[in-house]
Amino acid sequence: MNSSLSRSPESAALCYDSLENSCPRTVYPLTLCLSLYFLFTTIFILTVSGNMLVIFVIWYSQNPLPAATNHLILSLSVAGVLIGGFVMPYSMVRSIATCWYFGPIFCEIHTAIDIVLCNTTMWHLTFISVDRYLAIFYPLHYQNLMTNKTGATMISSSWGLALAFGFVIVISDPQAKIRSSFYKDCMGGCFSFHNRKIGVKYSIIFYVIPVCIIITVYSRIFLVAKRHAKVIHSCNKCPKPSTLLRVKDLKATKTFAIVIGTFLCCWTPYFMCNIIDPLIGHSIDNLLYESLMWLAYLNAMFNPLIYVFLYSWFRQTAKALLSKLFM
């Protein structure tokens, strides 16, 4: 997901003043740079701390979610911690300095890990939608269907698919190393593969296919959830265990729908640009790419906030853990 800010060829500022083949860079006012460093640092601190809090709360609490669902949330939060702790700091420097000072090899590594972590987030959300589908459509068989083994298979598949795509395609495929002719041979650049072939293919594999699965699954879920909710509300005398379980499933489904909706709001603008740009001759300004990339990164910070606001058990456990930590 790495891109570079738009730079004018006439700019006199260079990434490396001592090198003739240095990439040009954009020089921003000091006040703006300091403000952006403060903003981005706040974002990745909140991302890491928020997702770490989710991990500790899920790990130490007796929450009402099934074990397999907990494991999916834990794994998703691990990806959020890594995005905030590893991807964001280097992307922050590249975004503000408009140069890459960490070497070409680490550029490839950072790009691949960036794609792997964001890709695994999408697949986790896809499998969470499948988990919710099973909970709503097969409530009596849910415990047998969503075993710890099934959850482990979903988690390993999420990471496996992301690793295969991120490292095999991005690093091994020579087409993924294509750069624009202006920056092809200069030092100080770290650029993503926004060419016609790779950009569209990448977007379809990473975004369009999982999103179609998620939308299809949740469309069916909400049709059934609506009917279930009417039955539950019309039954005044039945505090049966099965009914109470159904209420919990409906609440969890609604929460995860908000998580997935937030993901779509954060990532859709970036991928729309990624799909459209090659078709219009790469005329979309790279500054827009950079801004949309950071909007996409914000998704990793939003997920913990959703749990805080929508789960009372999460708030109570988090409050207890924080009070122990700071007492």
Which secondary structure elements does this structure contain, and how are they paired or packed?
Blueprint: H1 30-60, H2 67-97, H3 104-137, H4 142-145, H5 148-172, H6 196-234, H7 241-279, H8 286-310, H9 312-326
Helix pairs in contact: 1-2, 1-8, 1-9, 2-3, 2-5, 2-8, 3-5, 3-6, 3-7, 6-7, 7-8, 8-9
Brief summary:
This protein is mainly alpha-helical and 327 residues long.
How would you describe what is shown here?
With 327 residues, the chain is an all-alpha fold. Helix content is 74%, strand content 0%. The chain contains nine helices and no strands. The longest helix is centred in the middle third of the chain and has 39 residues, at 196-234. The protein is globular. The two termini are 41 Å apart.
Descriptive terms for the model:
mainly alpha, 327 residues, globular, 74% helix, disordered N terminus
